[in-house]
Each structure stands twice: as structure tokens, then as C-alpha cells.
Predict the structure.
Amino acid sequence: MNKLSSYTIKEIHRAYRDKILTPTSFVDLCLQKAIQSIELNAFTTITDDEAESHAIESEKRLYVDRKPKTLDGITIGIKDNFCTSNIPTTCGSEMLKNFVPTYNATVYARLRKAGACLVGKCNLDEFAMGSGTIDSIFGPTRNPWQYERNNWKIAGGSSGGSAVAVTTGSCVAAIGSDTGGSTRNPAALCGVVGLKPSYGLVSRYGLIPLVNSMDVPGILTRDIDDCVAVLNSVAGPDDLDSTTIKRDYKPIEIQDIDMSSVKIGIPKEYHCEGMDREVIDTWSYVSDILEKENCIVKQVSLPYSSASIVVYSILNQCEVASNMARYDGIEYGLRTDETYSTEELYASSRLRGFSEVVRSRILTGNYFLLTRNYNKYFIKALKLRRLISDDFNKVFNGEDKVDLLLTPTTLSDAPSYEDFSLKNNRDQCAFQDFCTQPANMAGIPAVSIPIRLSKNGLPLSLQLMGPMFSEELMLNVAKKIESIVKFPSFDNTTLADKFVKI
Amino acid sequence: MYRFIYYKSLRMCNRSHSTSFNKWESVVGLEVHALLNTNSKLFSGAQNTFGGVVNSCVSLFDAAIPGTLPVLNRKCVELGIKTALALSCKVNEVSSLDRKHYFYADLPAGYQITQQRAPLASDGVINFQVFTPGFHKKPYKKSSKIKQIQLEQDSGKSLHDAELKRSLVDLNRAGAPLIEVVFEPDLQDGEEAAALVKELVLIVQRLGACTGRMEEGALRVDANVSIRRPGDPLSTRTEIKNIGSIRGVAGAVRYEIERQKTVLENGGRIINETRAWDAVGRATIPMRDKEVVQDYRYMPEPNLPPLRVNLKSKHDTQHVISVPLIQEQIPELPESSRKNLIENYQLRPEAAIQIVNEPILLKYFVDLAEERSQSTKIANLLINELLTVLNKNKLDISDCPITLRQLKELFKLFFDKKISLEVFKNVLDDLVISSDSDKMPSKIIQERNWTLISDETEITKFCIEIIENNPKLVKQYKEGKVKVLKALLGVMSKNSQNKFDMSLASRIMEEVLKK
């Protein structure tokens, strides 16, 4: 029975049709997994009431109305920076600990419309600022792989809760957000698929922003087919987000594609200092596989890659400074008892509401935005961002162009919490986001695919990137890789033995 | 919460320099915020209205609820472009939106979305007539260049309760659509500034872009004032914020110019500061502590793509507005109306200005003048008699309750000599007081027995009566004092309660006297 929680969407729907399983029983199974793995801290809120009522609705559509929807009875987790009506949305911050939105983010609304059942809200670094999911007021999220109570690996971040929820089978799919790699990084470290769609393909309405110009809702699933099913139900224009593309969305199909027509680029700049030997080997392993599949694989250059992380850091902090200005304790969020003056109220609410990581980004961002610094930092960073984006343009559209790029997702397998927390948040991100954030700078789609286990028994993943709106080809190639490498998924049947006894 | 506003007393230097006979030249530039007349706000679907129940017109976005995003209201862009075209501005093919950051309780997001780097339109001009009766003898033409027109959000309103030591916030106005029109410092004094604002009000009203109701804050004026010796470069200016009436603009600028003169002539120094116009005290006062200079940390608004418009063709799509199409919808503007009144109706410029200044008056005039040739007379009656009656009843011209139908009948009665000027005025008064659109002047005249008598026999009979009762005056007249005729007519008009056609009466009286 437990294996059911590793089923794909297709398998689950088949089981529903065959009445081996019903939405309510499946939802219960997922909730059970969530409870069993509570120690991993994947959720900020487990929404059992919602999950059960959503399951009942699905059941009715399946067996009474006989008009099932595409995601009926499919369990989902939503990162806790997407607004969910009547369900707390905390951003892992003291500031929004008591914030209960009155509206649904478009992504969640569309998943609900497709019949998905919400299991819970997933843990994250405060306001998604981090790459380890260790900076949340609810405590760190722990990686289920090689878990030991006193020696555990980080889940990656900032959508670590979403990645762990999928890995443990607490839900079939989870929504994360990806600003510099926040979906792909934890997906890579937890051994699940993590998709960062093209900027503008999926609505950001209701996603509490980190960096508006880079944020995209991300999708975490156990395989590519599930990822496509979720993408197909959330993508497409949204009048509430002016940055979504206006043309209608054409659902992606996974089919047997002719790999010999696909050109894969290996950007040499991603072969960076500090990259683990095992990661490099995995990279070669897959490029060899692709070559064997008759793909054209060749080295390409993205010369501005090295500037990317600095540029990302500046733009990130500027937008953070601006986006965080609304948290003043007046309309919602934390408000202290300070009554001396409005200014004092702001200061004390923001001091108590934000961690030092958030405050230091706000302070730095405001420094960069000062009139005297604006050209020196912000404008310069924008110019470099353009060059980074042009790099991708040339590789994808110029002479000798390639269709997709293959790179590692992270520089190593999941670090232990002990090692990771030795570094400060800024250095953690600079290291962890190296391969992932350029895609956010350019707005292009990218997907992290788990490949194999390291000698430590931890997942190693690679990333595919493609030109804007090339999700169809990218995911088809990803599917091909997935079917060849046969990554050994996390065995969640042992969860009960691992935790419940304790 | 409370907020402190420091009202500093005027600090002036006592040492006086005796250079006051040197001439000063004042330089005035305006920035006007006009609330666009749309159903919904600039970036949200909340109702854009004045006087709603507190916090009843607030969308999630207006309250800066996390995760909400702005969606630009197309109607606002259209009205902004319309205004820009009416002010001969160059509409920019691509404009963009920026965030301007500052903390304030009634600014929920901590920033205002405005257009700092690439405004909607730039480089325009406004031409207007400066004429304040009683201040200027003759009107003169003036123009001011427009630097730019930008779209921006309004803020909410803070209410400070000093007694309970708390502040309350009303977000009904938060996110309401504004255009800010930034004028070059091309003006010299308060009257010119007031005349510019008046012209702008007329223009936006004609366009339907803004109600122009300054008393509701639909149009707010900031005035930048500095003074210098002729030929010198521009000197330090002060900014008077949020002046809420046209006469306020004139008063505030005049006061500020005089204040600066006094400061400088006493050896003081003008500091760059923000001041407020105290309409009751009739003075400008320092508004906030300006020692800390605000850095607004402008940044492009990342949630809104650049705003593109079609300048070349009349092809209009959901996302790209055609500017030539809007150009076609621009109605006749006040400057053309005045020209029309002067050239086609032979009005004096003073009369044309006064008529055009009041949209209702202009409408009355055009409709009345359509039916008869005495356009000058009509204009004078409207300006002198109608305005007097309204003033007497403390009514704003825009609230004039008289319908065109009533007015047309009244003018016909007067021009047909059925009633005297006195009766004309009395009927106007009656119409204003009763505010009853069904009550026709003829009815009033009938009821009050005010019909003009033009029956010669009756008038002759009355004349004889007057002559018999005023032997002294008659004697004087017969001795050659012809002026006495006026006195006799006066008696006649008084005794008859203005019921005679006095031009006829005057002729008959003379005839009778000569007999």
C-alpha cells in the first residue's frame, strides 16, 4: 500500500478508475506521510481539513458526476510564499506569522480548478532569501536522504519544504518559487524534478515577491510527466499579472522525439572552481549518454557567466529593499506596541519582524538605490544583466546555435547542516546559486533532473536550460534523460520505520 | 500612531539693508496634480470616487497586500494622453513606470508608482489670458511651457486625532489615478499662476479628464517660487504644496513673493523648503523639517512592462492605444472658444474671458446668441445680471439652477420689451431662489403682475397723472431744465412698479410735456 505514494499522476488516476484507490484514501495516505516525516519539517502548515474536503470534491467528480478534472485527487504542497485564501501564508517570517490572505494566488487557484488537493504549505527560507531552507522561523527543513537525527543534510532552498514534501510522498507535486535557483536547487539536492518555467509563462499573482523581475513559480515533482501535467494546468496568460505573455498557452506533450536533431551545448564557464569531482563526472556521464543518443553535443561559451552572481546579488537586494517597504505593521503583519511615533513603530516592527538576513539585504539594497549610487550599482548591474542575457541569445540564436544547454544544478551533493551553517547566508547563496541564477537573469526556462547517487548516497542532478518558451523541447529531452539514467527514487516506504518509532 | 509636523515660526534677520528700492523679479513654476475622472483606480479595480464611506473603495492591491500586482488601467492612459495632446505635448511612444520610495502611514506599499525616467508625454505649452477684474485693467496673453506629464498614484489620507493621540488612515484615495503636469518656471506672479490653473481646469473639464473640482482635491497645485534681481540666474526656491483653490494660488504666490522680498531685504537667506498655504491665516508656513533631505531611491517598477502607444496610425488594440485616434476626440478648447466669441460674436476680450471661464455661462451664451443678434447685450446681461443675482444668493455659478429653457424665455421677454431690466433682474432672482425648472418666467411675471405696459393710451394717461402731481418738476422742465425729465421718469417707474416700457414712456412723457 505504501508504494502508492510513489505513484505518478497517470498511475494514480488509473488506480482511481480501477477503484484500487480513491481520492480520500490517497489524501489520507499522503497526510500520513506528512505526519510520519514531521521531523523533516517540510510544512509550515499541514492543511488536513482542506485536503480532505478537496478529496471529497474530487471523489464526487470522479464517481458521481463522472467528469474528472486533470488533477483530481492529486495532492499538492504549496510553498508558503504563495497566498492561499483563509490559510496562513507566513513566508517563514515573524513579520507574516499571523498573515491570513483573503485571496488565492493564480497558481494555486488554477491547481484547485484542476482538482488538486492541498496537503500543506511548505517551509522556506524567510521571504525565500536563502539556498538551504535553514533560515525560517519554523526551523530548518531536513533532507530525507541519509537522514540521521544528529547528522543530517540540508534540503537546499529556498523551496526546501516543497522538495522534501514531494520526496517523502507527502504530496505528488509541489509549487516552489525560483528567483536564483530556489526550486532547482532543493530539487537537485533531494533527488526530484525541479522546473523553473520561462519568465512570463506562469503567473506570479499571489506569489509574495523576492525579486519581481526574476521570480517564477516553480514546479517540483517526482518525474517529468507529472511536472508537465502540473505545468499544463498552471501556465498561460493571467490578466492579474501584466508580465505574463499574452498569447494562449499550448499544452506541452511528451512524445518520443528524434534526439539526432537536438543540439546540446556544454557551457565551459560552468566548469567552475569548487565544483565537486562527482558532479563533473555526472555531467560527462550524461553528455556521453546524449551523444550516444545521436545528439550533437558541443562546448559553448557564455563569457559573462562569472559576473552573474554579483549582478544577481545587487539586483536582488535592490528589489528586496523596495518590496519589503510595505511591511510597516500598519495594514497587516507584525505590529509592535510602540506608540512614541509612527517612525518608531515602523522601526521596531521591522526590527522584530525581519531576521538579520532580511534586514541586511534591505539595508544594502537601499544603499545601492541612493541617488548617488544608482548609476554605479543598479544601472551597471542592469547593463551586465543584459550582457548575460545576450550571451544566452547568441548561444541559442547565433551562428552555430544550440537548442539546449546542459550543466550541473549544484556544485556538490547536499552539504551537511553543520558545514553549511558555517558560512553566512550571502556566501551560501553565491556558492549554491552559481549554476542556476543565470537562467533567472535571462528569464529562460531550466529544469533540474536527478541523475544518480553520489558515493555518500545523495542525489546528484543536472540542469537543462533552453531559450525563452522552449519548455516543450527541454522537457522532452529531460524525459529522455530521465528514462535512460533511471534515478533510484527515495524509498519512502521506510519513512514509518525511520521516524515513528522515535 | 502620531506624526509630527513642525510648524516653525518665521525666522528673520533683524539687520536691515537699505537696498529695497532695487527691483526684484519673481519666478513662479507650477506642478499640478489632476485626479483622472475614471470609474476605477490607476492599477486596481477599486472604485475611484470622492466621498465614499471610509475604507470602502480599497482593493487588496491598494492596501499593498503581499503578492498583489498592479494592472494599468487603460482609461487612465487615454485620459492622460488626451490631456497631453490638448496641451500640445509630445506623447512618448514608450514610457515607463517607477517606484518612488518613502515611508508614510497612508502610503501602504512604502512607495508610490509614478513616471520619473520616461514620462507619458513631454514638451507642451499652455496659452492663456491673464485677467482678474479689479486687478488688471486689460487682459494679456501669457504662456507657460510644460516639461512633462506623468501618470502616478495618489496616496491615502491620514487623520490625526491629537486628543486621543492616534492616527487613522483612509485608503479610499490610495491608488487613485493622477496626472502630474510639470510646468516650466515661466510665470511672474500669483495672478498669472491663478490664470494658468483656471485655464488648466477649463481644459481638463472640457476633455472630461478631470472634474476640476479643487474643493474636492481633484486638482491640487504646488507652486515653486523664487525671486532674483533681473538678469540674475534662478535662485533658491521654496515650494508651496497642495494649494486647493484658484484664489488660493494667487494668494499663496503673492504672499510668498512678498515674504521672500522681506527676508532678503532684511539680509536673510531663502532656504529650500516646503511650505503650506494657510487659507484662513492667509500666509505660507513651513511644512516639515527639511534638514533631512529625502532620497526617494527611484527604481523601475518591475511588475509593469513599458507602456507603448501607437503614434503613427489609428490602429487601436487592447494593449496598444492609438494616439491619432485620441487626437480626433479632442473637443474645442477654451482658447478657441474665446477667439470664436471675439471674432464671430464681436465680444470684447474681457467679456469673452469671463464667459469662457464659466462653462455654464458659455453654454447659456452660445444658445441664447444663436437666436438673436444682440450678442454683446446677452453677454453683458449674463456677466452683470446673472452673476450678480447668483452672488447675492451665495451660489456658485456651476450650481446655477436656471434652465436654458427658462433663460431663453426670459431673454425673449426682455428683448421683446415685454419686461423692463428691473423685472428681468427680479425674475432671475425668483428663478434662482425657487430653483424650480418647471416654473417659467412668463408665469412668474403673470403671477406678480410684472408685465410691461406698452399701451400708449394707458401710458399717456399715467404721464398726465405724474405731471399733475409734480408741478414743481414740470415748472423746472418748462423753464428749460430738460434734465428734469429723468426725475419725472424715475417717479413714473417707481409708482408703476417698473411695469412700463420705459423707452416708450420716455417718448410719450416728452410729448405730453411739450403739449
